[in-house]
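Re: the 468-residue chain
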Amino acid sequence: MLLPVIMAGGSGSRLWPLSRTLYPKQFLALTSNATMLQETVKRLDGIEHQAPLLICNEEHRFIVAEQLRKGGMDNSGIILEPVGRNTAPAIALAALKAVANDEDPLLLVLAADHVIQNTDSFLSSVQHAKVEAEKGKLVTFGIVPTHPETGYGYIHRGEVLNNNAYCVDAFVEKPQLETAKTYVASGEYYWNSGMFLFKASRYLAELEKYAPEILVACKAAMHDTKSDLDFTRLDKDIFMECPDDSIDYAVMEKTRDAVVVPMDANWSDVGSWSALWEVNDKDASGNATRGDVLVENTNNSYIYSQDKLVATVGVEDLVVVETKDAVLVAHKDKVQDVKGIVGQLKQANRYEYLQHREVYRPWGTHDEIAEGERFHVKHVMVKPGECTATQMHYHRAEHWVVVKGTAKVINGDKNYLLTENESTYIPIGSPHSIANPGQIPLELIEVRSGAYLSEDDVVRVEDYGVGY
């Protein structure tokens, strides 16, 4: 049986301000109403497979679980990486988990942040790859290039195995433009997609041969795992000792059993705003827009509005992205330099590189809507049946005003209900939490006041749930 392994880690910054460290692009809806993670899972519907196994960063665990729940999607578990160690260890963890019950499934390794517009072609390539993977080959998928791209690595095909597969002659680093032109003209090179198919046991065997220190570290980290709902937690100290290496460098460039199966499926890794413009539908003037957008005499631009009306007049080849807390304006040819802005934000220790103004939590969301020297105002939403942690603060008091639903409040030694248009006061030092006992989302306005309002003024009272 095929076991999809979906790598949902990473915290890319190339799609800032939409993508943030704590909410990267794989969790965004960029080409449809579904997120990229959800699209990756949905893409598998046309092929027989087990429920996918996911790998993600510790800080993204609840986002992954919630997006799967919203999509009505099953999973075979979610492995949490306490630190990032690249793709070779991540896939090793999945393979070790897959063979733990004396099974040896075919692992279909996918990234959660790729766009594939031709699903039928994708599934056809997977079926072709299964033929070779079942023989013990390690298959990578090579994207049939549409132009001489300098931002991707390439795979040079070698001996023909059948009409749909070739031995890998070489993996090639990102080339200069003139070299890329010769690659595309030859018809013998493919873009390196970072997708793979092989037996779990074969990957582990090749890893033991070519990068045994990775396998040793991953086995040790998986030896003392802890299960928490669907999550598998590793030993952080052990996993931190694991070498950081990609599957290409650790295994695929060294093994004698590497095979490439071509895939012509309108694929993109959406590595920049210009790439996102390319894969989206456009109007007659070449504009791709999303949200509340008006254009006048605008050409070949990507314009995204999250919260406000965005209007453009007399411009071309621009990327304009508006979120609740940031606006990006860039020339399409310069979007790779967005990482420089993110670097400036990190250096200045500004939160905009890390997370959005609206923050997602297991129990709901909170969105800062006003801020002053001695006050913060937030819109808080608590999902039905959920509850925040019980906590207290030494430097701030809070007022809560319920605007929708019913709230069950713990305030010191008091426990009471609030309904719409009712409010309560939480004094400094009072342990408190709020729960939603109803069937509809609970919404409230939280007003913090005091001399020190930072998030680190929190003392948690244990065993009352997950806080924010």
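The two ends are 40 Å apart (CA to CA).
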